[in-house]
Specification:
alpha/beta, TIM Barrel, eight-stranded parallel barrel, three-stranded antiparallel sheet
Length: 413
């Protein structure tokens, strides 16, 4: 079944069913009830979108940092500013707080910061083991740096909490949340709102060979007292039975999900709707913290796309209108159908193939040829194709900061 049909089927009960309830409020939500737009996630992607293609500055920009401070623009122990580590910039894409705060064309934007603390870093931060004391000093300075920006900050602590690739131990994970929230309060960093993010992933294959059912939600099944762990399916009808293990409670101001390949869920967006309904019950605004049309490569010469993904037959020569119909239209319909709760959405506008960790080549049958550490992410730049850029711009408010209540008329039929 094509992504278009899968996603459309999952949206039959959603389109036109936007909640009549008042929008869920919280720190940094728009008082007029609009859905804020953020773009990222690398220095290159932000530069291309705002400075290169001269798209209007979105409400917010996104970036990432770890307690090791391998990203640029943060205060080190000796008072110097950190620079993006070469391995990080080449492998994952450059991250630089100083670029965001120091570039005049980016003044006034909010900042969404993904704070990664994959195992065993979360244990070190929680207990002070190994290098935990030094790492915690880094965290304290990071919070001070984010406070000093004076901008609205959405701090995604330990994002994609249940993701098996992070390996978060729930007890240590929640302990770090408590420590960071206490530190934010101690520093009176009132511009920082905390975000608890889920991956909400339905894998197309059981890559872990753990006996999980593909096409169904999954989560880590960690061992608390020893190394390792496994993976488990999550009941979409009762996701809290598993996901609440990582929930930090009142320490979180927002909740969040990722959206990449919803067509891999056995019933498309209906599965994600179950996760959103679970998060709505928390009574906090929801951020779509990471979203991208994963798997679509772009050919500049032809102006067309190809959908290439590990384990799936390739589809070549796709016009931008088809990519829009397959991924962007269902995604935006899903966001608008939940506009009472989804108060902000972050799109990853990046050419992932620029960075060695994300590079991937598959053959016509989806068999790996080279790379593909985490599948194929493709080129998800919103500005790289003129027609796709036009379609995207029509979805935005005049100033480009919010989703428009009534999109423009450039949508393909």
């Amino acid at each position: 079944m094509t992504p278009t049909r899968t996603c459309a089927a999952g949206l039959l009960l959603l389109v036109g069913a936007a909640a009549a309830a008042a929008p869920i409020g919280g720190p940094h939500t728009d008082p007029q009830g609009r859905t804020a737009v953020l773009v990222g996630q690398t220095r290159d992607g932000i530069r291309d979108y705002v400075l290169g293609s001269r798209q209007p500055l979105p409400w917010g920009l996104t970036m990432y940092v770890a307690p090791t401070l391998d990203s640029g623009g943060f205060t080190l122990a000796d008072g110097r500013r950190s620079e993006t580590a070469a391995w990080y910039a080449e492998g994952f894409g450059p991250q630089d707080l100083g670029f965001i705060t120091g570039t005049k064309e980016l003044q006034g934007s909010a900042i969404a910061v993904g704070f990664w603390m994959g195992h065993p870093l979360e244990v070190d931060l929680a207990t002070g083991s190994r290098d935990g004391a030094r790492l915690w000093d880094n965290v304290r300075r990071m919070i001070a740096d984010l406070k000093a920006t004076g901008r609205p900050v959405l701090l995604r602590i330990g994002y994609e909490a249940e993701g098996p690739w992070n390996g978060y131990r729930p007890s240590a994970y929640k302990a770090v949340w408590s420590k960071m929230r206490a530190e934010i309060r101690a520093q009176k960093a009132d511009n920082i709102a905390t975000v608890w993010q889920l991956a909400a992933l339905c894998p197309a294959q059981d890559a872990w060979k753990a006996g999980v059912t593909p096409g169904r939600l999954i989560a880590a099944k960690p061992y608390e007292d020893k190394e390792g762990g496994t993976v488990q399916n999550v009941d979409a009808a009762n996701p809290g039975a598993v996901l609440d293990a990582w929930y930090p409670g009142d320490d979180a101001d927002w909740t969040a999900i990722s959206v990449f390949e919803p067509q891999d869920c056995h019933n498309g967006y209906r599965t994600l709707q179950g996760v959103v309904d679970y998060l709505k019950a928390k009574g906090k605004p929801i951020l779509v913290a990471e979203a991208a049309a994963r798997g679509y490569d772009y050919d500049v010469a032809s102006g067309r796309y190809a959908y290439r993904q590990v384990g799936k037959p390739a589809r070549e020569g796709l016009p931008p209108e088809q990519v829009w119909r397959e991924w962007y239209q269902p995604f935006l319909a899903f966001v608008r159908a939940n506009s009472d709760a989804i108060r902000a959405v972050a799109l990853i506008s990046d050419d992932w193939q620029r960075y060695t960790h994300w590079q991937c080549r598959v053959d016509a049958q989806g068999v790996k040829v080279a790379g593909c550490n985490e599948g194929n992410w493709g080129n998800t730049r919103l500005d790289v194709n003129p027609r796709l850029r036009e379609l995207w711009r029509a979805q935005l408010s005049f100033d480009g900061r919010f989703l428009a209540e009534r999109p423009g008329r450039t949508n393909p039929p």
